[in-house]
Amino acid sequence: MGLTVNLDRRDFARAFRDRLAEALDRAGMNRTELARSVGIDRSTLSLLMSEESDRLPRADTAAAIANALQVSLDWLLGLSNEADLGADIHPETMEIAPSSPTPLDERINRWIEEAVGYKIRYVPTTIPDLAKTDAVLQHEYRDFAVKSTGQAIALSQQKLAYARLPETDMEICTPVQAITGFAHGEGMWEGLPLADRLAQLDRLILLVEELYPTLRLYLFDGLTHYSAPYTIFGPKRVALYAGQVYLVFNTREHIRVLTRHFDDLVRAAVVNSAEAGAYLRRLRGVLTGGAGPA
């Protein structure tokens, strides 16, 4: 529904600032991420959002901001009450990634590349892929239907390379029971030798301590909270793993809902990111009678 507007420049700028702040909050983005996405300096964006300024963006900048935040330009400028993009320019809301291994891996690599500079939030299926040793990947994928061990190792290396980039900001949430179950060789890890499990714990300890705080591992209680595995690639998309396929959503609403779900997991963590390394060391000590990593 339209909105009749009768504003002077200062009121117009105030309406723009208020809606820009609201859209930023809804999108789960910060000013640095938005400025990078739009292609403007952060100082320029800060000036546009300053309460002491009545500056308005250029038409092309306003359009780029609206597109990055997935809101209508009219709404952003205070000319409409309809925030959603029109159907003619709204991106595809969902796709299903193919189950064949090569296209799937290529698509994940592309999602990772497109998310460089944004925060990635990740709920893994088991041990975080980027931390898995070759022995663990060989055990996990030796009989897997749609992905070979070699493909799994290559994808793990790609994710680890991303995690080591200086601009990376990654959060991982997984049930504490998934880690303890792995350590004790339970479930799918039955038959994996103790030496391989210890080597995997050593690898995970090394990474969470070396890459903290740009990589943060949180462990939540799987008896009080549940999550399917998914990855939030900044403001770009959410990929929900459904078993050999990914359901991929790129609308603001889907991203916002799963971002809030992830934030709930972080708040419910029984082991926070600053304690993760020490927790893993204690868990390793239980397996070895107190002996530390080799």
Tell me what you see in this structure:
The protein has 294 residues and is an alpha+beta fold. The chain is 48% helix and 13% strand. The chain contains 12 helices and 8 strands. It has helices spanning 9-27, 31-38, 42-48, 59-69, 73-76, 101-114, 134-141, 149-163, 176-183, 194-210, 252-267, 276-288; strands at residues 94-97, 119-123, 169-175, 215-220, 230-233, 237-241, 246-249, 269-271. It has an 8-stranded mixed β-sheet, with helices on both faces. Helix 6 (101-114) runs parallel beside helix 8. Mean pLDDT is 81; it is low at 1-7, 85-94 and 98-104.
- The ordered string of helix (H) and strand (E) elements is HHHHHEHEHHEHHEEEEHEH
Roughly how many Å is the radius of gyration?
22 Å
Percentage beta strand? 5-15%
| Average predicted confidence as pLDDT | 81
Helix content: 40-55%
Low-confidence stretches: 1-7, 85-94, 98-104
* N- to C-terminal distance: 67 Å
How would you classify the helix and strand content by structural class? alpha+beta
Instruction: Walk across the major sheet and give the strand order.
Output: 1-7-6-5-2-3-4-8
Q: Note the overall shape.
A: elongated
Number of helical stretches of at least 4 residues:
12
Total strand segments: 8
Major sheet characteristics: 8 strands, mixed
Please sum up the structure shown.
The chain has 12 helices and 8 strands. The chain has 294 residues and is an alpha+beta fold.
Could you name the key traits of this structure?
single chain; 294 residues; alpha+beta; disordered N terminus
